[in-house]
Amino acid sequence: MANQGRITKILLKRDLLYSLYSWGYYGVLFVSFFASSFILKNFLDGIREDDILVSAFPLNYPLYITIIIISLYLVLISAISISREREQGTLEVLFYGPVTSKNFLMAKFWKDFFLGVISLGFTAVYFFLVSFFTNLGFTPGLVRALIMGVFLISCVVSFGLFISSLTSRVRSSVITLIAVFGAFLAIQFSYSTLLGLEKESLPTSLFYIRETLQLVFKGINWVSPFAYLSRGLDSVLLDNWSLFFTNVLYCVVYVTVFLSLSIYIMNRRGVKA
Amino acid sequence: MIQTENLCKTYNDLMVVKDLNLKVEKNDIYGFLGPNGAGKTTTIMMLLGLVPKSGGKIYLLGNEMKPNNVELKRKIGVVSENQYFYRDMTASEYLNFFGEIYEVENRQKRIDKLMSAVGLEKEKNKNLGAYSKGMQQKLAFVKALLHDPELLILDEPVANLDPTSIKQIRDLIEEEHEAGRTVFVSSHLLSEVEKLCKKVGIINQGKLLAEDNMDNIKRKLSDTVTIRIELNQEAQNLEPVLSNLPFIQGFQCKENKIEVQLKTDRDYRKDLSEAIFNSGYIILSMQAKEMSLEEAFITITQQNISLLTDRGNGQ
Questions:
Q1: Which of B101, B145, B146, B152 to mutate to test the interface with A (most CBs of A within 10 A)?
Q2: What is the reported pLDDT for B102?
Q3: Which ranges of chain B have pLDDT less than 50?
């Protein structure tokens, strides 16, 4: 057991250092801060024009944008992390030795998780400076959102790894990821559209389609990591501690289920592309 | 060291390995031969637990091989046909990374020793992306030997290498064998296997067609043995004599040289020599022409001759 933990640590160290030395990571951080700065500027312009601001969480919306951009980056890099090693053959070489699916996958999970946590660290510093220079409050709600962000990131990463465990090549991972999220969005959009129509005016066939979509939509809410993101950040805005901890628990269960599934699939799927 | 019992692998109802019974003894250099697509790499992948088997059992170093048997994997060194590296690393970083995984003691000293054994000591700080094919193959050997494994599994170890590199790798394999390691070599380069291996297994369409030591395989395959004889004079008067000998299957004469095909049910060389001498000829030289491994391989794989060992025949 201790030995397996040691191997996970060795793999994690290599992967984390490799990612931290790459420009892509800092590029995404820059883009996320740029996007939130842009929103903040519009926000501050609005305050200047109206000379009034009523908000309990003035920085939360820009923070959410940052978290969403970081999450999109993390879901993408975790979705290609296994398939890339499978495609390049390095997964095979690792598995010649005492590396198992479990410690390989855990190393990938912790690597992307730590990248996310480091991003949130940078984000906290950035928003602290914004708060300092703009006098917009660095509220406890913002701190709670950052804490919730840690759990949401773990959901996003475990979902990405699940996609990666299923696929053989980087290209197929990216296509699968886009297809899955595209399908989620399409179902959500269709369901919202049908929900906007009067129940009485719906033909029977559309009514059943709406009922089916409702069930699928409920399912997606448990599968999509971005549904957890949305619910988790809502619990912060509602200032509801019980909802906050329920969402944290959901995240932990989600991560456990998806990582277990990924390990199972990796064992079944093997190391070859 | 390696033993498989009725090992099978099926992909979508297609059986690519069928009831494979291999036996590699301790300190063997075992050649695993077969044409492309015969099932060699699938077998190796199953031996290493990297491809799930569809049936049968695998025993490595006396223990049953299960997919996540990491303790067993620690005792095996592997060189694959294609080399896969983290190209962002230098050779030294790469070996240190694997040395750490395998918990190699005196890591740096061992890396330096092995790198100089393959002539790469000056290249250790070079990025792996800049390594040539031959250098990559040698580095794969260093990686495979780093943790001092008991068993070396080599999949096409000299494919795509230049003659100098082939010689270096062959010497290295022989050294490792002399140092007490068991070596399992899968290859389609028959000349290399013939130089290296004492025992071979020939696989075709997933089935083990022959498994024995090299000489026995050649002997079993051939129902005649060819003898080349040089005489003291032209052999034209010898033709009627040879035609009447019942153990001769055929012959060709050219000037003072003859090539005779003898039956293999017993050694007829003495009878042949007497017949030639009694006809007034003196034999200057006599040499048995051996069947090459290549000829044996082609015969076995083309005709799918089942020359399973005594063990395989249940005797």
A1: B101
A2: 92
A3: 307-315
B80 near A CB under 8 A: yes
Inform me whether the C-beta atom of residue B288 falls under 8 Å from chain A C-beta atoms: no
Over residues B44-57, the pLDDT tens digits come to: 989 988 888 888 99
Residue pLDDT, tens place only, B246-278: 888 788 888 888 888 887 777 888 888 888 888
Nearest alpha carbon to residue A77 among A15, A150, A124: A15
- Chain A hits for B70, CB-CB cut-off 8 Å, are 3-4, 97-100
B80 contacts on A by Cβ (under 8 Å): 89, 92-93, 96
Choose among B245, B239, B229: nearest CA to B282.
Answer: B229
* CA separation, residue B121 to residues A68, A77, A104, B91, B112 (Å): 48, 36, 31, 10, 7
The pLDDT assigned to B313 comes to 41
Amino acid, single-letter form, for residue A220: I
Can you tell me the distance from the alpha carbon of A268 to that of A152, in angstroms, rounded to the nearest whole number?
28
DSSP B291: P
The predicted pLDDT at position B100 comes to 93
Hey, are the CB atoms on B84 and A90 less than 8 Å from each other? yes
Q: What is the pTM of this model?
A: 0.81
Residue whose entry in the numeric block shows the structure tokens 């008067």: B237
| Residue B2: closest CA among B52, B54, B57 | B57
Any long-range contacts for B220-223 (C-beta under 8 Å, 24+ apart)?
A: B220/B307, B221/B291, B221/B296, B221/B299, B221/B300, B221/B305, B221/B307, B222/B264, B222/B291, B223/B263, B223/B264
DSSP designation for B223: S
B84, A88: Cβ pair inside 8 Å?
yes
Count of all residues that appear for chain A in the document: 273
Long-range contacts of B40-46 (CB under 8 A, 24+ apart): B40/B155, B40/B186, B40/B203, B41/B81, B41/B155, B41/B186, B42/B9, B42/B16, B42/B17, B42/B206, B43/B4, B43/B7, B43/B9, B43/B17, B43/B186, B43/B203, B44/B153, B44/B155, B44/B186, B45/A270, B45/A272, B46/B7, B46/B9, B46/B17
Size of interface A-B (CB pairs under 8 A): 63
pLDDT over 90 percentage in chain A: 58
pLDDT value of position B315: 34
- B208-218 as b/e: b if 16+ CB within 10 A: bbbbbebeebb
Q: Could you identify the residue written with the tokens 């599968």? A: A223
Residue B159 and residue B41: Cα distance in Å, rounded?
A: 14
DSSP 3-state percent helix, strand, coil across chain A (nearest 5): 85, 0, 15
For residues A270 and A104, what is the distance between their CA atoms, to the nearest angstrom?
13
A42 vs B: CB within 8 A: no
